[in-house]
Specification:
alpha/beta; OB fold (Dihydrolipoamide Acetyltransferase, E2P); five-stranded mixed barrel; 6 strands; 2 domains
Length: 165
């Protein structure tokens, strides 16, 4: 029985078109969700389900595992607890009762000075951690564990100064 090249070629082409159709559908679905992500709708829907819970620092101290990997907001004053600001940068947020939680830096420790000949007003300099020291803040982030120290800390994503101190 001779092999019919035309019939086999037709079937192969048909399968190729079917696979291309599936691939095109997959690409369209991916592009649709990418468009949602880019426009912010998907992020808005996801962030609505992940609202920060305001928590007292004493609550974190009492049951840190309860807040592990959860987004929270705490209020207190930022203090440096390291021996040296530059070589041992360690920070805590402390409430009025003296309870504290370690926090990660959310802005640089320092920024380089402006280029010679370029004037810079004090308000043009980016904020650094020392700008927040001693200030009453509202700090938001995710509670994590530092396995090297065996301590929980707040991985800070944003901070704002409290008004009406």
């Amino acid at each position: 029985m001779p092999y019919d090249l035309r019939e086999s070629n037709f079937e192969d082409q048909k399968r190729g078109y079917e696979m291309k159709a599936v691939s095109y559908k997959t690409i369209l679905v991916v592009l649709f969700f990418a468009g949602l992500l880019n426009s912010g709708w998907l992020l808005l829907a996801l962030s609505a389900s992940a609202q920060n819970q305001e928590v007292g620092i004493h609550e974190i101290k009492a049951a840190p595992e309860k807040f592990l990997n959860k987004k929270i907001t705490v209020r207190g004053r930022l203090r440096s607890t390291g021996r040296n600001y530059f070589t041992d940068p360690q920070f805590v947020i402390e409430d009025d009762a003296g309870n504290s939680v370690d926090v990660s830096p959310w802005v640089p420790l320092e920024v380089p000075p402006p280029m010679p000949g370029k004037e810079q007003s004090p308000g043009d300099r980016p904020l650094v951690m020392r700008d927040f020291l001693g200030r009453k803040l509202s700090v938001s982030g995710t509670v994590r564990i530092d396995h090297m120290k065996g301590k929980h800390f707040l991985d800070v994503e944003s901070a704002a100064e409290e008004t009406g101190q």
